[in-house]
């Protein structure tokens, strides 16, 4: 008898949303540098991108365990 229960989390929608936000912030940051957007908005976009990367890593590690 197998008494080990797996607690499978469904993080698919969260991962999809994080990937979408990451791609949008990266595109916004790249476009902003070409059209001359100020440094502050691009730093904010970069911060959001880093946050998305960290959260994606956390979700991947959590789902792997």
Can you give me a brief rundown of this structure?
This protein has about 60 residues and is mainly α.
Shape: elongated
Helix content: over 70%
Pick out the low-confidence regions: none
Mean pLDDT, rounded to whole units? 87
Task: Characterize the biggest β-sheet.
Answer: none
Q: Report the strand count.
A: 0
Give the tally of structural domains. 1
CA-to-CA gap between the ends?
22 Å
Number of helices: 2
- Computed CA radius of gyration, to the nearest angstrom: 17 Å
Strand content: under 5%
- Going by helix content, strand content and strand pairing, the class is mainly alpha
Helix and strand run: HH
Structure report:
The protein is mainly alpha-helical and 65 residues long. The protein has one domain (12-64). The chain has helices at 12-35, 39-64. The chain is elongated and about 45 Å long.
Features:
65 residues, mainly alpha, 2 helices, 77% helix
Write the layout of secondary structure elements.
Layout: H1 12-35, H2 39-64
Helix pairs in contact: 1-2
């Amino acid at each position: 008898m197998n008494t080990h229960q797996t607690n499978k989390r469904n993080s698919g929608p969260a991962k999809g949303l994080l990937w979408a936000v990451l791609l949008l912030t990266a595109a916004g940051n790249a476009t902003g540098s070409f059209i001359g957007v100020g440094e502050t908005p691009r730093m904010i976009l970069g911060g959001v991108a880093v946050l998305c990367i960290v959260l994606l890593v956390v979700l991947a590690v959590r789902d792997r365990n």
